[in-house]
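Input (Nucleosome assembly protein 1):
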Amino acid sequence: MSNGKDNFSVADLSAALNAGDRADLVNVLKTQHDDLEAKFFEERAALEAKYQKLYQPLYTKRFEIVNGVIEVEGATTEAAVADQQVDKDAVEKGVPDFWLTAMKNNDVLSEEITERDEEALKFLRDIKWSKIDDPKGFKLEFFFENNPYFKNTLLTKTYHMIDEDEPILEKAIGTEIEWYPGKCLTQKILKKKPKKGSKNAKPITKTEQCESFFNFFCPPQVPEDEEDIDEDAAEELQNLMELDYDVGFDSNAVGTNGYDKQK
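Output:
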């Protein structure tokens, strides 16, 4: 049998079988497979990087159209508006609620968006995805107009992957949202009347967490010591992390394929 794995042939296979050295033969095949797989991942990464650059002008043009930065051929012109005696201020620029519509048309994201979230998501101007190398993973960026809900104009979500090709999630990091007073969408305030005869006549208020897409930016935290959680808690954490990754994955899908998500 040939000593060089790159020169392995059918003749080598026959010789190995005749010699009864089948275990070594399987190991040689496994090594060749691993080498090819490594080359595949290397070439795939280069191809993805190449096309990510080619996509960028399209994303830029989409941003300009959606946000009314440029006029689109065939769209209503100012002259036409004047002829129709339409108030210019009433003419909406761009594509209103583009990202809210795209997100609601996605099966995973639509489950996370509440009615209260919708008004805030109307201020979303763009979603961008970028790959990160150290540590391996990717980052999502959500760009917002100034709005009455929170101070941030950029919310990010970063995923660190243990294995980028599987993929296996290590942890996720989100932006802390700076909510304006009384505008937090991830909490609700409950008011309870005091008991009869109570000296305190004021209603009792209690703050509770509630469902909201914006919980996405406060991902589940993995304890440093796995022994700190029991089996049930570990399973629940695993489910939360999988859901969190699914929302991130589909946010990327909406960001890259927003063109065909408008119904």
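Residues 76-90 have pLDDT under 50 and may be disordered.
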